[in-house]
Amino acid sequence: MQIELKNISYTYQGPLPVAALEDINLRVQTGEILGLIGHTGSGKSTLLQHLNGLIRPQKGDVLVNGLSVKKEEMSLRELRFRVGLVFQYPEHQLFEETIYKEVSFGPKNMGLSEEEIDQRVRRSLQDAGVEEELYERSPFELSGGQKRRVALASILAMEPEILVLDEPTAGLDPQGRKDILNFLLNWRTPERGIVLVSHNMEEIAPFADRIVVLHQGSIVQDGTPKEVFSKAKELAEVGINVPQICFVLSELKERGWPVDTGIFTVEEAAREICRAFNIEPPTTPGGEGHGV
Amino acid sequence: MQPIIEVKDVYHQYGDTEALCGVSLGIYPGEFLAIVGANGSGKSTLARHLNGLLLPSSGEVKVKGFSTQDADDVWQIRSIVGMVFQNPDNQLVATTVEEDVAFGPENLGVPSKEIRKRVDEALKWVNMYEHRQRSPHQLSGGQKQRVAIAGILAMHPEVLVLDEPTAMLDPVGRQEVLEAITYLNKELKMAVVLITHHMDEVVLADRVVAMEKGKIAQISTPRELFSQSELVERLGLDVPQVFALSNLLQDYGIKIDVAFNPIELVNALCKLS
Amino acid sequence: MAFDVTLGQYIPGESFVHRLDPRTKLIMALALIVVLFMIESFIGYLWVAGFLLLAIINGDIPLSSITRGLKPLTLIILLTVILNIFFTEGTQVLWQWKFIKITQEGIAKGLLLGVRLILLILSTTIMTLTTSPLAITDGLEYLLSPLKKLKFPAHELSMMLTIALRFIPTLLEETDKIIKAQMARGADFESGNLFRRAQNMVPLLVPLFVSAFRRADDLATAMESRCYRGGEGRTRLNELVFQRADYFVLGIVLPVLVLVVVLF
User: Fold this and answer.
1) What is residue B193's DSSP assignment?
2) Which residues of C touch A105 (CB under 8 A)?
3) Can you tell me the ipTM of this complex?
4) Superfamily for the A2-231 domain
5) CA separation for the pair B42, B213 (Å, rounded)
6) In this structure, what are the phi and psi dihedrals at residue A24, rounded to the nearest 5 degrees?
7) Is the pLDDT of residue C212 over 50?
8) Whole-number Cα distances in Å, A25 to A51, A79, A215, A218, C24
9) Residues 78..137 of A with a Cβ closer than 8 Å to B: which?
10) pTM for the structure as a whole
């Protein structure tokens, strides 16, 4: 599956019209993890809602496998099922009496058969790491981290081809953050794609295949993490902080050291610095436990 | 030096679960103390004991000699220990910024003229003075959180306790709030207790309390904490990237001090040659 | 962003009317309402209209805000006028068709009631346009405080109003967000019959209530941490103090209005 935003512009009407997006061209496809970076007010939530059909394009078009949303060759409702959108703090949308019912809400709306719904609910809850003995419990009894898993499962049960997540790790502790990211990495297959919105560069860098930076309604960077993070200075100008390591490397380069700046893991950076200093790094990766 | 807050062997039970088991801690004037630990390790529970929002099942919390268990002293305690919470939206009461900041001193019965002085001063400290007439819902998360801090400062507390104040903010808002906190601690010499999941904030503290399952696992400097990789792993914490990098470089035989700040590391590396 | 509410239609300003104490404006609005119900002649209304016009000019209130205030009630005003024109018994019959007749008295009464309604609405909109919601709740608390002796919760009432004003925009935003989140799960808020639609609101209402309670809980904790313990012993950032202008309005303008009622 491939979704293409073509020349998308969007303005919020009102006493003071606000231009949220300006001439956006972006292609999102299965098999890929796309990291989307942008500050509050950069237009990213408007962009996300274009991807899953919550917003009808005002100007420009959204093409799903070549089918136009504007010409209604692809219905918004169908797009919503094929692209799962997980909002920030998704646990705030929980409403059902039991976790099982909560997760079946989406598949039910799709008009699936009872057996199909049952299969999907169980599969997605299992994938999200929710134990079976909890299925008949109320989602409101769970801890914060568990609630988020259930909310995630409620989208997964619709079996979207592309999963779009807005800050899925917000408010979690470091362990919780790692768990969610690892889960997403495992969920992705050649038939499934992920769009991950995050403020946290260090978190997104090692996961993403591609990084897109949105600033004031326009795309200012689009490339591999290596390409994007090597432009530390340009990113800083639009108020986006690159991972600390990228900063260290590009600062070294600026001061005349022959280092590669497109690196974002601690290991690689250490090796790169050793190389620049003509020191032989140990062959077995040392300093275990200091890792990212 | 006498501590402002003394936590003595405090236990706290929620139903069957022990949220705190025998916590003892002193909080001293002017210090910057960070509290870290996984969710459910008892950080927030501990914070809520510091101003009497929660009372110990056993043990005692004393604030400048007043015990939190003494119902008559609780208002005295809360004006000494101010508390800021996670969700910036849910702490602001009034429909304008300055009315909100005035809320605390109004409750303390401070005379009008003095309230005006305190409100203006507190808003200037957090750099929100020019927004004093605006309505909270027109502000960004970082701005709201700074208003919440000003609301506490206007009560003239001696300790500022912040329970994950940056968890719901974007990087810009986080930076703004951290700058405000640092200013209060360094310039106004206010004692700060910061609960956080962000390790780059922990680095700012003088001392770190690492919590694990309702107990204090260790009290140390941030440097000492992050050097113990096993403990860091066990507590489910992170290590700031630059710290990890400089540690690794040391292991590889480059002779530098462990650094927290990217510039510090770059400078150290450049000095080598 | 789907809901952009500016609460109360307050237009900030520095005019005489703006600077009046909210209590003065509340008293005047109340007095005008009473006066309008007692006046039975056009000349009396002309006096009131002239007075309101002065306030409008002084407060520099744009015509559009006034018409916006009148708009929702246009139908009621028209209906009142028409019903009275057609169904008032009278001697001076101008036109008749079967049992429906238009009399001179009917026209007079219809117009009189129409004007009364318009003036009533004007008196309250002028107050809300020139007074911030916060000042209104403040003024209300002061005016009602004598009732505290009768255990009337004047402070609590005003605190509740303030908090409601503070949180309405937040909850509207939240509503918008939850609607979108549920739509992303295939929820349908638009089609179906009335019963079906009501049922479809559950995925919206439950999270909204849960969130409102969570907010209430958080807010209560935060207020407690800031030493809130009811109205007793509280001071104010802005104490309400009557100025010379207030004494002028209450001492001279108000009696003139009363005189109008007596005379006309």
Assistant:
1) E
2) 185-187, 203
3) 0.90
4) P-loop containing nucleotide triphosphate hydrolases (3.40.50.300)
5) 7
6) -90, 130
7) yes
8) 12, 18, 14, 9, 59
9) none
10) 0.88
